């Protein structure tokens, strides 16, 4: 009997210690490979939260589309089969049209404007509105300003874009932008190296880091610094999961993700000049000053399109336009 009591006691001590010390695992999904913008944000978040929580949270980053494309990552976050995702603004568009506002062409002049809006009250409102889709929006990390590459010709003016088959993200606004610019936009999930290599598409548009990390200089000849969209990632958690966490843990995760996002934006920006040099060295023909005002004129009417007919979405777009004017 005594032995049994002792055993039972030992067993409950082990269980208690287990429940106190078992770390909570956070699975984070990104579609890109190590060294990419999303991955740098995810890895920094891992480092910060594991350190600050004293090990009570551990993070595993699932990368390189091992969990599927960005839309599929978001579906898994909604269901809480993974707890977090760092996902480009484009694919959010199909879940909530509010994501369209930041993808609006030529919305931000520079990084400082993007930070001011996204870290400010309007950015918070956008994150908040994702709760209706089962996402807890934590912060914005960045892909960066997007630029056009293609294999057909140097692009300086809209006429040079006419008829180019350009891959775009799965997003209504990105498709509309390239239609307005005169291209033949083809929505496609990431990654796209093979399609570029085989010539299924003539070109694509992404920030400079993508051309370097994914070695697009091997298969794309022309780069035009169009900077047509400031591309953000939304760093999201599953709302289902979020609601099970203690307030103190929510705060710690929120702060760690925001700090990681700020770190990653700075890191990304600090590397851009060297990247451009590298791409030139690798043989890309770069048009550094295309006729941006002509591009702008072609997309000037997008805000009046059906895409922005939802009053809340339109209102948010106009508020941002007003704030950055
Ligand atoms: O970061 O699909 C895209 O073009 C994204 O920018 C991609 O996630 C690369």
Mean pLDDT: 95
Q: Please give the number of β-strands.
A: 11
Basic shape: globular
Give helix and strand order, one letter per element, not per position: HEHEHEHHHEEHEHEHEHEEHHEHH
Computed Rg: 22 Å
Strand proportion: 15-25%
> What percent of residues adopt helix (DSSP H or I)?
40-55%
Question: What bound compounds does this protein have?
Answer: (2R,3R)-2,3,4-trihydroxybutanoic acid
- Poorly predicted sequence stretches spanning 5 or more consecutive residues: none
Structural class designation: alpha/beta
Assembly state: single chain
Biggest sheet descriptor: 6 strands, mixed
Strands of the biggest beta sheet: in what spatial order? 7-6-8-5-9-11
For the record, give the distance between the C-alpha atoms at the N and C termini, rounded to a whole number.
80 Å
Q: What is the helix tally?
A: 14
In short:
With 325 residues, the chain is α/β, with parallel strands linked by helices. The protein has helices at residues 2-21, 37-52, 70-79, 89-92, 111-118, 121-129, 158-161, 172-180, 193-197, 208-213, 239-242, 247-281, 292-299, 311-324; strands spanning 24-29, 57-62, 84-88, 135-145, 147-150, 165-168, 184-187, 203-206, 222-224, 230-238, 285-287.
